[in-house]
Amino acid sequence: MANQQVEFKFPKGGIFTIIIIVLGIIFISKSAVTIGPGEGGVIFERFGDGINTETTYGEGFHIVAPWNKMIVRKVRQQSISDEMNVLSVNGLEVKVSGTIWYEPEFSNLGKLIKTKGEDYERELLDPAINAAARSVVGRYTPEQLYSSKRDVIEQEILDEVSTVLKDQYLIVKRVLVEDVKLPPTIRTAIETKLKQEQESLEYEFRLAKAKKEAERQKIDAEGKATANRILSASLTDKILQEKGIEATLKLAESNNSKVVVIGSGKNGMPIILGNQ
Questions:
Q1: Is 0.70 surpassed by the pTM of this model?
Q2: For the residues of 164-176, what is the DSSP string, one character each?
Q3: What value does the mean pLDDT take over residues 24-39?
């Protein structure tokens, strides 16, 4: 039997269809962008004017022309922590560590990236925080920095940073000064002084409390003395006789008592000789 060869004929237009499918897959893979929760995106137009500042894309699935690029950044509130060496008002070097909460303006994300670049935290936020911290800390003594001025310092840094970043499309929400590190000798001196001040306040409190108690006792004694004087002035001989007679009658009415009264005692009061 002669060998029979089977000839496979490729359908007309099949190659063109395969090419279209491959190109479609490449187009979708290059063009599909998913923006996650808390993120925003702006388009870099490679053959246009660069960053498109008019539109910020929100969360979800987006199709972008393959020759363009979607730049995705976080637009929810974020935080950065930093530690820096600054000088106090008297020239002493202190180390301040803190945390800043910030977020970019969603609608102006394109303008922010176009003017400050994708790494806008390093280009814009860090210099503003450092300048504000040095300016504010330089107004206070180490003792104020260490103890009682934390809230005021935080608010002043926030105000200065907000002023510097005004119209820069980046919003600072909060500043927290977490720690102020002083040289050991200065820190020990401040802690000793604060302890002595606390002990002094406690001593003054005890003195004030004792003084109030003495005044209370004095007022109480004066009140009792006045009451006794009023009572003594009101007790005449006649009133005393009446009170004595009333007491004697009550005693005589008792079932468990026998009272014998003979004559009268001094001032006319009955004399009780015996009872059971």
A1: no
A2: HTTTTTEEEEEEE
A3: 77
